[in-house]
Amino acid sequence: DQQVKQNSPSLSVQEGRISILNCDYTNSMFDYFLWYKKYPAEGPTFLISISSIKDKNEDGRFTVFLNKSAKHLSLHIVPSQPGDSAVYFCAASEHNAGNMLTFGGGTRLMVKP
Amino acid sequence: DTGVSQNPRHKITKRGQNVTFRCDPISEHNRLYWYRQTLGQGPEFLTYFQNEAQLEKSRLLSDRFSAERPKGSFSTLEIQRTEQGDSAMYLCASSLGSRQQFFGPGTRLTVL
């Protein structure tokens, strides 16, 4: 069973517009959520995170929203830039499970100039 | 802070051979994690260490897999009697007790 799901395998947006990447989870014990960006032939790079005690966290062009009742989180990128083109992974962890990460399947974002 | 490093970056082997990968975490990071990523999927947890103690192992880690972290510094992941299904990217990550993990570039294994 997939505890973290990213239902959109790909997303294409125009440069300067907003990119919205979505993630759903099923395990109510998850209390910390992260977004990673991955370029080909590189490891995932941390972008932004959010604790379950918050519903929003912002860092520059990146904002993560958490809706605990819906078990849903989203990553907003505004404005989108061509350099943002990559695969984005949503990940979740439980405090009492060694902080190991459970990842979604990823969404490939393409930002067109 | 030179980041997490992994060696080799690529490994091609024949079915039935043993392979060993190495991960050097960020200095002083006490936690070290191994993940495996196959094409089109997100990384999947394999095992993790706190200092030199291996505290958790996924059911994905069959008895052909073994990981060590002597002296709580670098770690090795060995796969014995490799199978074609072992072909994947093996990722290492480290953290200093925080929830944020820093990943290395990975070792891509191809089993022929």
Describe the structure.
The complex is a heterodimer of chains A (113) and B (112). Chain A is mainly beta and 113 residues long. Chain A has strands at residues 4-5, 10-14, 19-25, 32-38, 45-51, 56-59, 62-67, 72-77, 86-93, 102-103, 107-112. In chain A, strands 2, 4, 5, 9, 10 and 11 form a six-stranded mixed β-sheet that branches. A five-stranded antiparallel β-sheet of chain A has the order 1-3-8-7-6, with no helix packed on it. The model of chain B has no long low-confidence stretch (mean pLDDT 94). The interface between A and B is medium-sized, with 25 and 26 residues.
Please outline the major beta sheet of chain A.
6 strands, mixed
Q: Roughly what is the average pLDDT of chain B, rounded to an integer?
A: 94
Detail the poorly predicted runs of chain B: none
The total strand number of chain A stands at 11
Shape of chain A: globular
Spatial separation of the terminal alpha carbons of chain B: 36 Å
Oligomeric grouping of the chains: heterodimer
Radius of gyration of chain A: 13 Å
Number of strands of chain B: 11
Q: What helical percentage do the residues of chain A reach?
A: under 10%
Range of strand content of chain A = over 45%
Q: How many alpha or pi helices of chain A? A: 0
**Low-pLDDT windows of residues of chain A:** none
Topology order of chain A in helix (H) and strand (E) letters: EEEEEEEEEEE
Most extensive interface, chain pair and sizes: A-B, 25 and 26 residues
Structural class call of chain B reads mainly beta
Biggest β-sheet of chain B: count, sense, barrel? 7 strands, mixed
H/E element string of chain B? EEEEEEEEEEE
Shape of chain B: globular
Q: How much is the average pLDDT of chain A?
A: 95
Beta-strand portion of chain B reads over 45%
